[in-house]
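@channel anyone free to eyeball this complex?
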Amino acid sequence: MRKSEKLITNTIRIAGSSTILFILLIFVFLMKEGLPTIQEISIGDLLSKRWYPIEELYGILPLISGSLIVTIFSMVIAFPLGIGTAIYIGEIAPPGLKEILKPLVEVLAGIPSVVLGFIGILVLSPMMRTGLKLPTGLTALTGSILLALISIPTIVSIAEDALYAVPNSYREAAYALGATHWQIIWYVVLPAGRSGILNAVMLGVGRSLGETMAVMMVTGNAPTLFSGLNSFISPVRTMTATIASEMGEVASGSSHYHVLFFIGILLFLFSLIINITSSTLSARPKRGKDQVIS
Amino acid sequence: MNLSSYSKEPKFRISRNLIQEIGFMGIRLITVITIFPILAIVVFIAIKGIPAISWEFLTAMPRDGMRAGGILPAIVGTLYLMVGTATISIPLGIAAGIYLAEYAPDNLWTRLIRIAIISLAGIPSVVYGLFGLGLFVLFFEFGISILSAALTLSIMTLPVIISTSEEALRSVPYKFRVIGISLGGTQWQTIRKVILPQALPGIVTGIILGLERAVGETAPILFTGATFFLPHLPSSPLDATMALPYHIYVISTQIPGMPITIQYGTVLVLLVIVLAMDVIASVIRSRARAKRQW
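replying in thread with the prediction:
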């Protein structure tokens, strides 16, 4: 009896620590396959402006630039939409409507990115081409719109949590001072929840930066460096799309293979920075009302 | 005393009420802009996809270079991947959740585990693909196989299952534990007989949401288990497999002259699987909430 209890407890303990093992394994194997890049390709070549693996040109700047363009622009779209929707769901919507809207946003979170990419190819990109009179609808802008759709559920749910965490006593105090509902939202709730809202945006950025399929399908996959506003309506190529589209065709152990893993290391580090910073931001306080009662 | 300032009050109130009206209008508009595409996408795919759905489409092998016939191998492949991922990630995830909720002391190691979970949750899916390629496909020599893909997807799913399990276990009131121990149960007996059954609905919801994500992902299986075309169903875990998300990518970007109805039909099948999981999860959640006695 006691023996089996001990066995189970130990198993649970090991399982509990397994995540540390996995994160280390991911780190080690990315490094193992990606670090040879530094020996094979000089830093100067790596930071050059041309990505053209057939001629052994491995400049990753255009890829970083592509990732940044679509991520930043997707946030420009997703931030107001996500925060606005969170405000509506958390502060304004009548309870019945709220119960409908929340699952709907979850539905969006569940739609696989390849499905959004598919819609992007068949519906959105022709619309962009004819609407903006472009030579091709496969542009950074098209990718940004899809990325906005993908990151909105993350932003809405984290931001709504942040608004929910603002103690009700704040709202009541403002109301007692004669503030309108809008003033309460604008001057009390939003400032009080700002760290959570910032957190929502950071995780949205992480989501956008790491997204692969949808972006690969609709951004036209041309590795070009940012060159002014025109870049938004031209084809680009992101770091993730480069890995996904080229890894299938390279010989393992080649320089090209190593560079793709090197790009993976960069993505891994970006995501690590974003997620660890955001988790330190969001030491979520319990809703104040509960504290008052207990 | 000068009372003239009070006379301005009504004017002030009108203007701030107007601001409120405008603000609310803006927020409502934003919410509509956010929600509309979700509904539009789902309805659009349903309308376009339903004509393709037939018994043959769901149960036949593809013919004519996948331009005719059914999508059985992709459906079966996705189910295999789901089962494989569930087999690995459910026991490990629940055990880790139990550790964090019931056993973990508040120390540095536990904090490291939490950082590892947060980090795993944020790693881009394509980076999981690279990791799976490096560790499972090449290092362990599992090859491009269901096993490699399921292992990769499991590690990706793990943070979702761990966090929701922990949360579900923590929401069981403390007195349940005290009662279990006071009746002479050991800690594990209390967890297994008292706490786990109470937390089960929450855990199951988390599992479904985690698997839902795994089912829809393409990037992690691109270089670990997915294959373009398979003339027969996979017969062992070491076979490569077709899968719905990858198949959607293939037929929408790689095969010229692909009939549009087959494309929409395939997307609809994946969407129905994913949304059905969503619905099941929320039904379990709301039922458990209604039944709960604490």
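from a first look: Strands of chain B lie at 62-63, 68-69.
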